[in-house]
Amino acid sequence: MKKALLKKDILLVSTSTTHGTGYLEHCRNEIKELLGDRKHILFIPYARPGGISHTEYTAKAQEGFTPLGVQVQGIHEAENPVEAVRQAEAVFIGGGNTFLLLRQLYANKLIEPLQQRVQQGMPYIGTSAGTNVAGKTIGTTNDMPIVFPKSFDALQLVPFNINPHYLDPLPDSTHMGETRETRIAEFHVHNRQPVVGLREGSMLRINGEKISLLGPLPARIFLQGQKPMEFKPEDDINFLLEAY
Description:
Blueprint: H1 2-5, E1 9-13, H2 28-35, E2 40-44, H3 54-65, E3 71-74, H4 81-87, E4 91-93, H5 98-107, H6 111-119, E5 124-127, H7 129-132, E6 161-164, H8 180-190, E7 195-198, E8 203-207, E9 210-214, E10 219-222, E11 229-231
Parallel strand pairs: 1-5, 2-3, 2-4, 4-5, 6-7
Antiparallel strand pairs: 1-8, 7-10, 8-9, 10-11
């Protein structure tokens, strides 16, 4: 597994906007470090939060990259989406509905090209749904299945699943329904791969064979048949890259 990860340069963010910040503002420094001197990024707007148009969503993404001096191109503007991925300096996939996003990635035959380019070292940035599809499957998304993708198998840029926007139970809540932890336990009855619960403001940085938790909060990591574990940003979580 490690050999397959040597060139990967990935930033997976729980959310594009945290309370009191602008679009991508809370992860701007991490994006800057990832992109280096690159000045162009290909944006995949297929998740379409709230049903906005691809053009409107691309304009929103540009707001986040303008302070970095980076120009955003929406993949919907390209005559050939596959060739656009093959020529991209970097790729950003934003949030919205994960099922819709994955369906469109399959429909436009972008799964393998994205996998190949990331393997070659092209930087990949995902937020929310864009983080979900970087995992092994989308089986731990919080989204409603508003459409059917070809498969739940995702880009598999990392060998585990992610649950962005992970929420802890409120200690004084009278809500008696299922928690995120309950749902992930249900997932592990039928699936082996680890699940990383990313709280808002948190992100994962994969650089070659090293993975780091960034941001102000710990992450909750779930392994099949074990009690959930809390990991702080300074903790070693490289075992995730050797997962199933």
